[in-house]
Amino acid sequence: MTVINGGHFSDLEGFYEEVSELFMKDEDWKVGTLDGFDDILYGVDSDITWKDSQKSKEDLGFDLTKEFYENKIRIGKPFNMEFIQNKLNDLVAGNGQTLFEILVEILKSHQNINLILD
Asked: Who is most buried in 31, 61, 72, 77, counting CB within 10 A?
């Protein structure tokens, strides 16, 4: 069983550090994007417990997600501005996913992973 400890981080970069330590110990690169996180999970076949998931749900919630999208818009290319703006609009309207929800969805999309939110 693998444990993602929500007490070890409070932002997306900290989450990436946590999962890099868990899944990429022997690699010379670290996870730094949502796509990268999704990619490393293809080799995982286990139960994953997300300890302190309620803290992570709050930390990676609306405010941080809004800031995440606004930063992408500020950076511009190579990001698809229309796509990102639509994601931000959905979030602000109460219909979009938070970063926490996106990460949970990524984890649950892998059939060999059984996610336990603790």
From this structure: 31
